[in-house]
Every structure is written in C-alpha cells, then in structure tokens.
Specification:
400 residues; alpha+beta; 4-stranded antiparallel beta sheet; 11 helices; 8 strands; 45% helix
Length: 400
C-alpha cells in the first residue's frame, strides 16, 4: 500500500497541490514553474528528501516519495516531475566528495539541484585547478529555479576507457537557453544550459560508476544502486498524472449524467484497472528499494516494473482521451493535459521497455554483473554509445 505521509507534512503537500492547481495554466504558458510553486515544492521538503542527515536532510524513503509525488502529479505532472527530480538529484549529489557536499548544503539542505547527465555532453578538460567545462547540455528540468546543476561529460581515464563524469556547477555560472517548446510537460522548464569555460574544482566531481556502488555506513537510500531506483523516480509523476486523468474523466462523465448513474463503461473499467496495476507495480518497486536485498534480479525487476507501469498508464489515458469525444480536443481539457504530460514523459529513455529488457533478461538468466546488480547493455544501449563505456571501474578515489 502507499506509504502514509510522515516525512512530508500533509499540510505542506496540500498547499503545494493548491498552488499547482492555481498556476498550472501559467506554468504551461511560460514553460516553467512559477516562483510560488517552486517555493512550495521546497517547503514540502522534496529537495532535502535524500540529503544526508548530517546536513539536515531526511535521507528518506522511496515509498514516502511515491506518496508525495503522485499526490502532486494528480494535479500537475510538471510540478511533480521537477519536485521528484529535485529529490533525485539531491540523492545523486550525496555521492560527491564530502567537501563538495558541504558546499552544496552548508547553509541549507533545501538547495534545489537540476541535472543534465544523460547523455554526457560538452567537453571537460583537466587543468591544474580542476576541470574546464565548455558546451551545451539539454533537458535540465527545473533549472530556472535551481541553485546548482549537475552536468556530465566524457573524460579520459587513467589507463582506462573514457569515463562518464558528473560535475556540480553553481547555477549562476551557467547560461540557460529557452529551448523547451514541447507537446507536454511544458511547466518543467527543461531547458538547455551552456557553459563557457567554467572551471569546476576536482572535489566537485564523481563518476557514473560511483552511483552504482553503495555509500558505506549510509542510510538505506544511499546503499541501493542508481539502477534500482532511477526509473522508479521518473515513473512517479506519470502514475499521479494517470490518476488525475481518471479523476477528470470520471468527473466529466458524472456531470453529463447529472444525478443519474453513468452507463456501464468498458473504457473506464479497463483504464481504472490498468492504473491500479501500475500503482501496485510502483509500490512494490518502492518497497524493494526501501527494504529488499540488492541482487541483480531485484534491481532489474525495479527497472522492469517502472517501465511496465508507465506503459500501463499510457495505454489507460490513451483510451480515456479517445473516449472523451470532441471535448477532449480542447487544449484546456484536463484529460488531454494529463495525456500530453504522460505522452511526453513516457518517451524518457529511463522508462523504455527496451532499456529495462537489457537489464532484466540477463538478470533473469543469471547473466548480470554481480558487482553492480545490472545486466550488460548491448552496444549503443543504455550504457552509452558504441566505443564508450559508461560504467568502467573508477580507480581514482573521491577526495574531499
């Protein structure tokens, strides 16, 4: 079952929901969160949810994040997307060296962190003072309200293949370019960021391979590999949006009938069942992430279930929109709005069934890498383009 709201304040979540409902049209028009909504998301505690407790964070659970994110997405998927990613990126930043973590959270655990780390982009050149970054990185959700941005580039290793390296950069050292003109998820403001020779100290970097390993002596949320939880977090806003579409469709059907009971609807029945099944899949994935042993098969099952849940939600809301008739063609129709958001979110690479299959199939047949709990990716698949290894072992220790 969905986790009760303990780590998050119910009143704060309801306040964020109310503001997201009030501002969702403005956010779609301006293609970014409003300042009020961004502040409310922060007040709820999304950015601090996975921040280590020593910096005032919660080091929270995935079940609790599921409850809060899907509650918010039921009203506005774009708001929930940014909120969830602020939490997810705080978790990623916890893998940076201790000195970098102190820089990020020395004044508050509520620093909002955006990211553009998949695929790696730009150029990073090592200099005596650190790494010099130049280039463009796309799809940095929530960047307009971010304090920091995580970027990624391929960097040469020490007698190793190139490595996928992450860099923490203050938002005010980057330029944001307005490139987010999309079918759905318009309010996420997933714009492009540019760096023009920005110098990043060595202590503000880590490699993608670091994210695959547990942090010794840390809270549970930092001892599960990224592969076990990455797709889950991207899927949460989709589930909430599907529930919102079902609410809107049912409300419209009831209004048309007045006081009479609407006629039996196979569309409603199928959609409700699919969305319920998607919820059960994600709740099980969150439960595994919070409590289950980390094994290659359970890691792969998490990826499988997140991708399958998104597919179920997409199918359900497709049916609801088709059954909405002419009214569903109005851009301000709530079912259509949720459909646009879900259709856009479902294209994310992390939610691809093919990507999930590349991990699940070898894990099921005991061919996964036991050191990471993930399956070997085919060339050009989720691990990166041909000729580059995204998960090469990192022999350079992270220094404070």
């Amino acid at each position: 079952m969905t986790a009760p709201l303990r780590e998050f304040s119910r009143d704060a979540v309801e306040h964020a929901v109310a503001l997201a409902h009030r501002d969702h049209r403005v956010q779609e028009t301006h293609r970014r969160l409003t300042d009020d909504v961004a502040r409310a998301v922060t007040d709820v505690g999304f950015p601090r949810h996975f921040v280590p407790r020593r910096f005032g964070g919660r080091a929270g659970t995935f079940g609790e994040l599921l409850t809060a994110a899907t509650t918010l997405a039921r009203t506005c998927a774009a708001t929930a997307w940014c909120a969830t990613l602020y939490a997810a990126h705080g978790r990623l930043a916890s893998y940076l060296p201790e000195k970098a973590q102190r820089e990020l959270w020395h004044s508050s655990p509520d620093a909002r962190i955006a990211a553009a780390i998949m695929p790696p982009s730009g150029e990073a050149n090592l200099e005596p003072g650190g790494w010099r970054l130049t280039g463009r990185w796309g799809f940095a959700s929530g960047v307009d309200h971010a304090d920091w941005v995580l970027l990624a580039s391929w960097t040469p290793g020490r007698n190793l293949p190139e490595r996928h390296r992450l860099f923490a950069v203050p938002r005010d050292e980057l330029t944001v370019t307005d490139t987010w003109h999309t079918l759905g998820m318009r309010g996420t403001g997933s714009n492009t960021v540019e760096a023009d020779g920005v110098l990043v100290p060595r202590h503000r970097t880590c490699t993608l391979s670091d994210l695959l390993l547990p942090l010794p002596g840390s809270a549970r949320c930092h001892t599960v590999p990224y592969a076990m939880v990455g797709a889950l977090m991207f899927a949460l806003p989709v589930l909430g949006a599907a529930r919102g579409a079902l609410d809107a469709w049912t409300h419209a059907a009831t209004e048309r009938q007045g006081t009479a009971v609407p006629p039996a609807s196979s569309t409603l029945t199928r959609a409700a069942a699919r969305i319920r099944a998607a919820g059960l899949l994600l709740e099980a994935a969150a439960e595994r992430a919070d409590h289950a042993p980390v094994t290659p098969l359970l890691v792969a099952e998490g990826q499988r279930d997140a991708a399958a849940a998104v597919e179920l939600c997409s199918e359900a809301v497709d049916q609801l929109l088709r059954a909405s008739g002419s009214r569903g063609q109005a851009e301000d129709d709530p079912v259509q709005r949720h459909w646009r958001d879900i259709t856009t979110a479902a294209t994310h690479r992390a939610l691809s069934i093919d990507a999930a299959a590349s991990a699940y199939t070898p894990a099921l047949f005991d061919r996964a890498d036991p050191s990471t709990g993930v399956g070997a990716a085919a060339p050009g698949g989720p691990a990166g383009p041909p000729g580059r290894t995204a998960t090469a072992p990192d022999t350079e220790r992270r220094t404070a």
